[in-house]
Specification:
92% of the residues lie in helices and 0% in strands. The chain has 182 residues and is an all-alpha fold. The model has no long low-confidence stretch (mean pLDDT 82).
Length: 182
């Protein structure tokens, strides 16, 4: 089993709870938007805002702030745990191969290249992995919400997104073929 698979397998529960926090935060965002829309419509109709409405508004705002912070905390915590175990598994892997392995890969030069690669992977995980996952969850959730509200508008407004995804997928396959030949 490779180092990355082993690391992600060890952190599957942290990853799971991070995704649950993202989904819960998305639910709070939808609740916030729905309540804010209802509040604006209520005020525009000429009605006065009651104390109970203000209390609900503040409660949803507090939930929004807390879930945003918790979601960010979980993503950061899980990223750091993944990075820690990734480095730890890398060291165990090199130690298991022994001193002869380091001499065969060029000693310090080979170890330096491997360590730099590990640093780049850890940097990607810290800055991009959960951002990409969070963006995908928010896109899917928003698209689902729009499908419930107005399916025709949701599909028509997201056709350009589908076209862009197809173009990027196709062009990346072409570029991959050129980079492998070079």
């Amino acid at each position: 089993m490779n180092i990355i698979s082993l690391t992600f397998r060890k952190q599957k529960w942290n990853i799971f709870f991070t995704l649950i926090a993202d989904i819960a935060f998305l639910g709070i965002v939808f609740m916030w938007n729905k309540y804010l829309s209802a509040l604006i419509d209520f005020v525009l109709a000429g009605n006065k805002i009651s104390t109970q409405m203000i209390f609900r508004f503040i409660l949803i705002l507090l939930l929004y702030i807390l879930m945003n912070g918790f979601s960010s905390f979980m993503a950061s915590f899980t990223s750091e745990k993944i990075n820690f175990y990734l480095r730890e598994n890398y060291i165990h892997s090199v130690a298991d191969k022994g001193f002869n392995y380091l001499q065969n890969v060029g000693g310090g030069n080979g170890a330096s290249v491997l360590l730099n690669e590990m640093t780049n992977i850890c940097g990607f995980i810290s800055s991009n992995l959960f951002f990409i996952i969070d963006s995908a969850i928010k896109f899917a959730g928003t698209f689902g919400w729009f499908l419930i509200l107005n399916p025709t508008l949701a599909i028509l407004s997201n056709l350009p997104v589908a076209g862009i995804l197809i173009y990027v997928s196709f062009s990346s396959k072409i570029l991959k073929g050129y980079t492998i030949k070079a």
